[in-house]
Amino acid sequence: MQNDIAVADAKERSRYEAHAADGTLMGFVDYHLHPGVITFVHAETLPEFRGRGVAGRIAAKSLDDARALGLRVRPACPFYQSYLEEHPEYADLVKEAAE
Predict the structure, then answer these.
(1) The pTM is what?
(2) Phi, psi (5° rounding) for residue 65?
(3) Exposure of 29 in the CB half-sphere (CA atoms within 13 A)
(4) To which H or E segment does residue 8 belong?
(5) The pLDDT of residue 6 is above 90
(6) To which H or E segment does residue 82 belong?
(7) CA separation (Å) from 59 to 2, 85, 98, 99?
(8) What is the rounded CA–CA span in Å between residue 5 and residue 90?
(9) CA torsion angle for 23, 12, 67, 21 (degrees, to 10)?
(10) Which residue from 61, 63, 68, 69 is spatially nearest to 94, judged by alpha carbons?
(11) Residues 28-56 pLDDT 10s
(12) Nearest to residue 49, comparing CAs of 18, 76, 82?
């Protein structure tokens, strides 16, 4: 199933989207982009695709892209906060609120 999930940055909508092989939207995360910082504000997996790792795939792709672009991450979304706690390999990306 995971190979059937394609994640891409839909820049025109300021969100990352996951699509099934047939093009069906599976989930997304909305973000706000500011100079040097990306804030993830809302992640959602459509009900029929929950429990299949969709949100995790979106998080990994978006965080890998943030790293490649030299962006700091502000996890305003509860899912991203939890994901980052469970994946310390991304801890260096986190922008603290006081920064």
Answers:
(1) 0.91
(2) -65, -45
(3) 30
(4) strand 6-10
(5) yes
(6) helix 78-86
(7) 14, 12, 23, 22
(8) 22
(9) 0
(10) 63
(11) 999 999 999 999 999 999 999 999 999 99
(12) 18
Q: Say how far apart CA 4 and CA 18 lie, in whole Å.
A: 10
* Secondary structure of 24-58 as H, E, C letters: CEEEEEEEEEECCEEEEEEEEECHHHCCCCHHHHH
Sheet holding 37-45, edge to edge: 6-10, 15-19, 25-34, 37-45, 72-75
pLDDT score of 99 more than 90: no
The token pair that represents 55 in the structure block: 């949100």
Structure tokens at 86: 């469970």
Question: Which residue do the tokens 């029929």 mark?
Answer: 48
Q: What is the pLDDT of residue 3?
A: 62
